[in-house]
Amino acid sequence: MRKSKALLFEMSRPGRQGYSLPSLDVPEKPLDELLPKKAQRNEPLGLPELSENEIIRHYTELSTRNFGVDTGFYPLGSCTMKYNPKVNEDVAVLPGFAFMHPCQPLETVQGALELLYNMEQGLKELTAMDRFTLQPAAGAHGELTGLMVIQAYHRHRGDHKRNKVLIPLSAHGTNPATVSMAGYEVVQIPSDDRGLVDLEALKEAVDETTAALMLTNPSTLGLFEEEIIPMAKAVHEAGGLLYYDGANLNAIMGYARPGDMGFDVVHLNIHKTFSTPHGGGGPGGGPVGVKERLIPFLPVPLVDKKKNQYYLDYDLPESIGKVHSFYGNFGVAVKAYTYMCMMGAEGLKQASTDAVINANYLMSLLKKTYLLPYDRICKHEFVLSARPQMKKGAGAGDIAKALLDRGFHPPTVYFPLIVEEALMVEPTDTEAKETLDAFAEVMGQIAKDIDQDAEKVAHGPYNTVVGRLDEVRAARNPVMRWEKKVD
Amino acid sequence: MKYNIVDGVKYTRKHEWARREGDTAVVGLSDYAQDKLGEIVFVELPDIGAEIEAGKGSAVIESVKAVADLYAPVDGTVVEVNEELLDQPELINSDPYGDGWVYKVEVKDESQLDALMDKPAYEKFVVEEDEK
After folding, report:
1. I need a surface site. Which of A202, A386, B30, B94 has the fewest CB within 10 A?
2. In the CATH scheme, what is the code of domain A352-473?
């Protein structure tokens, strides 16, 4: 296979062409008559000159370097690279959905509104919330929307002294970022030695300045916060609200509901729990659900039904306004709704079961060779520490590179921060036992390699298109675009 | 001891150090902290004149592994920052107690500085952290 690293510009040869333009079928005029001098280019555009097959080979070869869940195991903890069933795509490209215009009269898009309405009913049932907005474009966007709703609620009550949001140490990195973005101050709550939120520390931290507690349950350690009921009580008694970061709902869906635990606001990452493609900067979805008393503050419009007709309700005078153009990323909602319908209630519960069983099975295999700092039954993910390996000379980052060498996508490394040399593994619900066994075997082999020759592992990978990249130089001195060398 | 823990500075439990210089204290990251963070690629310095509060974030240190807050060891006003770090953040890795200093703060309450750990206490603390 051709493994060229050359850019199209570097492959360019003067005069080579991939396309012949037909002769003009209109009378040719001098350029000066068509464009004023100042609008004309002084030098050629400098596009690369190549033949068609060179271009095709270049891009086809690049496409083979992609690694996705369609090509292999992708156990990226916290990010949940869940398999995307292809039926989701089939439904999303149905002409009635794909070619719809957002400004069409409502009576011509009843089916689309019905889908949004039904999806909201499904999400309400799964989370025990009273209403949802499907507008936010991703999880972090959902977080900001949720906090803005909380802010609007407190302000509406004339309560202006609540300027702090409590976040456990094990939280997702987006949580503190969202809090700052919303204009609140972050108060960190430490973890206890079980890796759970320290309830006593939380009780001490809540007061009349607490706007909310933001919590992921299960946490980023893959552990269920067992004391959620007393935690919710402490926050509510102080007048604060509970925000549920739904990133890890895929571990408890069908078993437990955030609304029953006392949460007032939730966001869901539908790429994580409902099998839509991971955004990666593209369209995603982060629906936000709230309890009754917060409904008036949700973004407009909400989809509602009157006399069997679906319509868009803009009549929310206390609304925080719109958070996305039109109605959010509709195509993503179609995919998530398809998944919910294909799975059914029992199927969704089964997905949680499988995610948890897979994670516990893999954890039991890997804790033989790696340190497991919080050795308890986990939910959908678990966090190992490569600290013993690091002492020998190769750490979590080096293990990640060694996995690339053997055809696996590495787990998340160096997160969460409360575990040193963290390797955060999430196998997801759809992987077969054989895949998990193969991954564990390779991880075991890498640990052996480190025992024998850590130095070698610390300089990998060796079989990938490019070897060890200089991450420090890339961060300090990034070269973001090709520039023509001037002779 | 794997880490260089020097005399003449005081240490926090978050691995910052502070060295008294008249009415001010010079602040930086300990050798242990720079080792755990790995190669540092970016430093966000406080503004001169900024009021900092003990235990609160006062500068941001970004390495290839993580982004970490540098927590202020004492209350005070920032009077000088190490601008060399903007171009050469790696000075924190190569010389954490010298050229890798981060900022200088006018100390409000001397007793806060006195309450920090000295070399033997910090050595003991680091050994415990490392064995955890």
Report:
1. B94
2. 3.90.1150.10
